[in-house]
Amino acid sequence: xxxxxxxxxxxxxxxxxxxxxxxxxxxxxxxxxxxxxxxxxxxxxxxxxxxxxxxxxxxxxxxxxxxxxxxxxxxxxxxxxxxxxxxxxxxxxxxxxxxxxxxxxxxxxxxxxxxxxxxxxxxxxxxxxxxxxxxxxxxxxxxxxxxxxxxxxxxxxxxxxxxxxxxxxxxxxxxxxxxxxxxxxxxxxxxxxxxxxxxxxxxxxxxxxxxxxxxxxxxxxxxxxxxxxxxxxxxxxxxxxxxxxxxxxxxxxxxxxxxxxxxxxxxxxxxxxxxxxxxxxxxxxxxxxxxxxxxxxxxxxxxxxxxxxxxxxxxxxxxxxxxxxxxxxxxxxxxxxxxxxxxxxxxxxxxxxxxxxxxxxxxxxxxxxxxxxxxxxxxxxxxxxxxxxxxxxxxxxxxxxxxxxxxxxxxxxxxxxxxxxxxxxxxxxxxxxx
Length: 434
Fold this sequence. Notes:
7 helices, 33% strand, 434 residues, alpha+beta
């Protein structure tokens, strides 16, 4: 009996501690980021990136879902990356601090990886393995005429609350809901990605195909380019779009295609620069977006509420130059998931990190679905976006009007609404999906 108890104790201890992950090249890919913004070219940056093959990782570790933590010479650099095989995602991605001086060419990384069923509040070093490090290029910008002139700093280590809530809400994913993006085309593309999701999920009758496109053609993103009158030379040379022009262009497209009365629109925040939205509801082409800002700002709670209510969400992040105190540019993405890990909030989003730039001449790479921590690091009421120097300044949501989707409304949304009303259905599981 004592022997059996001892074995049980050992097994329990292993389960609590987690699985030491000696990952193969098929499971994880490490990269160093080269920033190739027009006005901020920084090769061999201090940013790292990890991409995890979800199916390989969960199968090899024997868990359907769990949390990946990584320790390097830079410390606890990847903190509680949530990985699950129920989201329909092929890969999970997170950016992190390489912990090296700018200009250091990193070709290999010594790292200790651990995959656990539950998140960790502390994490230390362990038996390391060496991993090859390749290069990825980053050119994700396109808001207004401002071009990014300073590369943001990586996210500092965060503190997790052992009593903080832990949950995840992720929308289902289908192929074709994230498409290769032209230079500075992120704002129209984020909306095109959302409209394609609404067509796939609820049958919204979007008349144009969602594919690679440009102003003047018959693609969905090309029509949005045209509607907002984005200045374009070709796929490698184009300007960004201001907030007011993009929202007006979106409403113009919906009105011209007979979709004006099919969706409900809301927003938080007003953006920045000469093209920021005015305070209050925004109406163009017979369509209104209701202003639900909190003190003029975006909140994590609002984004999650929209997602759980079956709305689709795009957010704009602003790049800040902390030296000058100015905003130097921004980037738009489609958000498809949110959650908290021991009280620390995060989002899942889709975008193209390259946007037809260096390293992607044929529009073949750059699409990704990262997970990013969005804790307000400086206490200004704006969620940071994976860095001290990036913040969410604008969020836009759209959803089918209830009368248009009486049958297609998924049970996950019904359960979520019941939970919001106080029935507590969703509270049965820590992790829930729609």
